[in-house]
Amino acid sequence: MTADPMPVFAPAVPAFPIDFGSIRSMLEYRFTVLDAYVDVNGLPTFVVANEPVKDKFCELLRDLANHGLMAKVRRVSDKLVISVFPKPVLGKPRRRRINLLLFLATIATVSVASYLNIFSVDPRLAAVMFSGFSATNQTVALAAGILGIIALHEFGHVLAVRHHKMDATLPYFVPGPPPIGTFGAMISLRGPPTNRDQLFDLGFSGPITGFAVILFVAIVAIMTSPIISSQQATQLLGANLLQYNSWPNEPFFLDLLTQAGLRVVPAGQVLVLTQVVFAAEVGALITFLNLLPVWQLDGGHITRATLGPRGHKMTAVVAFGILLLAGYWPFALLLLVFMFISRRPFDGLEPLDDISPLSNSRKFLFALALVILALSFVIL
After folding, report:
1. Are residues 57 and 179 in the same domain?
2. What pLDDT score was predicted for residue 219?
3. pTM, two decimal places
4. How far is Cα 2 from Cα 171, in angstroms, rounded to an integer?
5. How far apart are CA 380 and CA 378, in angstroms?
């Protein structure tokens, strides 16, 4: 952005590629303009009649984009105010080599973590767990499950970004140490979403895609796990090589799947879940944390789009209470650090059109997001 020389104490006026009259003509083509002026920051500002603006504003943004401009609309009293400003100059160009290197590094760390998880199993338990599904195959399945859940979660975000023609980076995968081997992945949005619909889709697309993969991995684990006699299970339990888990110490959806009759377990026998189910549990943990209605998490985008800024802040307080009660206080503290570093700790991502309500179909999906959050919940 460049600025023209201005007198001392006067605000710098941004350089616009087209004149004020041309911008006003674009506004008047779609809106009833009640007033027009240049504000103290040098931005063309228009007061328009209070009417539904979602589609009209999208069309306006497309026209402005042809001239390197953007706009935002806000409600002031009973009127709407549209401000036009130059599209921000993006920083460093995309470096896809970094994305690729991080992805390859994550494949390596997840593979090592999976190998250690599988081959560290006590030989007495390994004789049972790997009788029909070898340790090597278990290692591959575990690594593929973890990577698949994380990668397809991010792919869901990428699809939403491309569908709405938003500008965002490719996913940045974050390698990590055992036992998981990764801290997940993220994409960085390089511009604000147009409206609440886009903001909702940005947040919801990752968790719903990832959760579908989680269910698939969990079903594979159930269908390929060994069935042993109750006597063997008792011996392994006595040697502390097996443990019986149920909600809330494992995700609720896993309880439902194991009770759904996917595998017929004869009387006097027990289904022993293999290490592959660990991938589903990791995915559930990531989904649960991502869906919390806090800050810039996926759940934060969803609640900001559905409930607005006030509702977003109120649900964030509830979410922190859940984190503390469920034993996630280290994550809560880390999240607070990132929130306050951002200088806008309890503000969510703000769309350009923060006036138009969320579509009715997405309100239904908001309820689905809450269901997924509950199904993925687990106490540490």
Report:
1. no
2. 94
3. 0.89
4. 32
5. 6
